[in-house]
Amino acid sequence: MSASLAPECNEVKERYDTCFLKWYSEKYLRGQEKDNKECADMFKEYQNCLKNNIYRVLDSTASRMKKI
């Protein structure tokens, strides 16, 4: 699985990705469920982590780009 845009969120993203891929392969592709309710809380946790850390990541990236 890929890393998160914000390294602080890697663990949360990994848990969500694992949940999502399991749901997708075991339920969605088999036509059992269209809504991924079991991973919804993990997705919200990941979103909140990104919201809390993305500005720092973007500021760091912008600073590096100015040096080029």
Descriptive terms for the model:
about 70 residues; 2 helices; MDM35_apoptosis
Q: Can you tell me about this structure?
A:
It is a single chain. With 68 residues, the protein is an all-alpha fold. The protein has one domain (7-66). Helices cover 68% and strands 0% of the residues. It has 2 helices and no strands. The radius of gyration is 15 Å and the shape is elongated. It starts with 9 loop residues before the first helix and ends with a helix. 9% of the residues are buried.
Q: What's the main sheet like?
A: none
| Protein structure class | mainly alpha
Number of domains: 1
Q: Termini distance?
A: 30 Å
Bulk shape: elongated
Spans with pLDDT under 50 lasting ≥5 residues? Answer: none
- The helix-strand sequence is HH
Beta-sheet strand percentage? under 5%
Number of strands: 0
Give a concise summary:
The protein is an all-alpha fold.
Topology:
Blueprint: H1 10-28, H2 40-66
Helix pairs in contact: 1-2
